[in-house]
Amino acid sequence: MTDTAWIDLALTSARPQAMGALLRYFRNLDFAEEAFQEACIRALKTWPKNGPPRDPAAWLIFVGRNSGIDKVRRQARETALPPEEQLSDLGDREEELAERLDGSHYRDDILRLLFVCSNPVLPATQQIALALRIVSGLTVRQIARAFLVSEAAMEQRITRAKARVAAAGIPFETPDAADRAERLAAVATMIYLVFNEGYSAMNGPDGVSADLCDEAIRLSRLLLRLFPAEPEIMGLTALLLLQHSRGRARFDADGSLVLLEDQDRRLWNRQMIAEALAMIDKAMRHRRPGPYQIQAAIAAVHARAERPELTDWEEIDLLYQALERLQPSPVITLNRAVAVSKREGAEAALTMVEPLAERLSGYFYFHGLHGALLKQLGRNREARVAFDRAIALATNAAEAAYIRKQLDHLADDAATACLRKSFPI
Amino acid sequence: MLYAVLCYNDENVTSAWSKEEDDRVMRDLTAVQSKYVDAGKLGPVARLLPTTAATTLRHTTGETIVMDGPFAETKEQLLGFYLIECESLDEALTFARDLSSANPSAGSYEIRPLALYKPGELPS
């Protein structure tokens, strides 16, 4: 690897720690970001000459803090405002700084940083955008591309998010145990959202959205290092790894969605699957099942089946039942219906699915599954109506292409039926 | 004389590698290894999954504690490792418990699933 590539990686991985600490000093996202940028520029100048520092994060925090302080002082001369209030730790001497940079502070800083981004005052899309900007350091252009919006619109979204965070007056103290547990759940949700953003935007071999999935996995591994004994974070990490392991098999050459049972399992990433299975194994020992663990366990049942017909649908059904008890939702019932259709047939599944029609009327997968079950039962006319609804609700080209194929099959069936009618054989 | 070469790196850095970067590193490493394989000098090559996948069985006076992570106290050094085929973490823990009851000193056994294993071709 070249020098600059190494520096790039070191900066990426030190970012959450350094940004977290700089945010603690300056208590202002823009200020912390600028200080971090400044430190990165200095790193790019000095590291190739002097070699990498032993602790890149500590180096960046130290340099970033000094440059930030300089800037505050300069501003003070220009604007004559009392700037010292903006700084929380001006009195620190170097040795005190070194002490602060120990593991426990890193841990709180990163958590605080993630928490700031997943603050409930922000709508989910702003949480994700802010996290990608602040924690991951993606450029506004990269984030805008991942969200399929204009750069200007994304810039505005991030600016609004920062303003909201500032207005909310978030406390920067070290969180106590109860706060930590609460924050952990919020942060896990945010990481899951980042992943889903990448996962659902992914249509074909699109680099940007796969990057979002990788980033979410990196963040959840980071979180797990901070909380190595949290089974739900193990579950989250395992779930993301299992979903991402299928990335290359999820789309065909035309960019159309390939259902799990039709995927070429040789394309699944075995390394990610192995890591995820080890993680679930660990999590289960804690005997504290949660939604992420159960979802991961369901994904693991699929991953363990060498061929689709070897899938243990009974196990999946049971896991979905457990998930329904823990977190009842029509989407979970819908998913369970797939397992039921495999075990008891389309009729039984249809009976489960139809009562969900009203609550899931705007949900792509509801109409997709509804259509597929109707099709299996030979109720083609109704299937067509369901597929038409699904296509209208598709959020990306791959989903639409998949449904179009189903409609084509129906048309083929209809054509064959017509032929049979006119030319009885 | 045989040497065990244990690879240490900052997981913050290695887990930030993209699939392509990881593949490139592995390709470069394999190229280095192949010279030694050809010379009949290289034994097992094992890559461990991240430390987050690790479980530690700690043996103190009279009891064993199972913990998540590899976080043995740093004053302890890695003295060697076993490779063992196990059905589950429970089975591996049973093995570690057996070892720890046979071992008179206090200490810990870190259980890390392998990501890659090449048996190599060393003469025994």
UniProtKB/TrEMBL annotation, chain A:
Domain annotation DUF6596: ranges: 183-284
Residue span(s) of domain RNA polymerase sigma factor 70 region 4 type: 122-164
Gene Ontology biological process terms in this record: DNA-templated transcription initiation
GO molecular function: DNA binding; sigma factor activity
InterPro entries per record: DUF6596 (IPR046531), RNA_pol_sigma-70_dom (IPR014284), RNA_pol_sigma70_r2 (IPR007627), RNA_pol_sigma70_r4_t2 (IPR013249), RNA_pol_sigma_r2 (IPR013325), RNA_pol_sigma_r3/r4-like (IPR013324), TPR-like_helical_dom_sf (IPR011990), WH-like_DNA-bd_sf (IPR036388)
Domain RNA polymerase sigma-70 region: 15-77
Pfam families hit by this protein: DUF6596, Sigma70_r2, Sigma70_r4_2
Domain of life: Bacteria
PANTHER family: BLL0085 PROTEIN, BLL6612 PROTEIN-RELATED
Stored NCBIfam families: sigma70-ECF
Name of this chain's protein: RNA polymerase sigma-70 factor, ECF subfamily
Species this chain originates from: Sinorhizobium sojae CCBAU 05684
TrEMBL record, chain B:
Domain YCII-related: 1-114
Xref: SUPFAM superfamilies: Dimeric alpha+beta barrel
Family from the record: Belongs to the YciI family.
Protein's recorded name: RNA polymerase sigma-70 factor, ECF subfamily
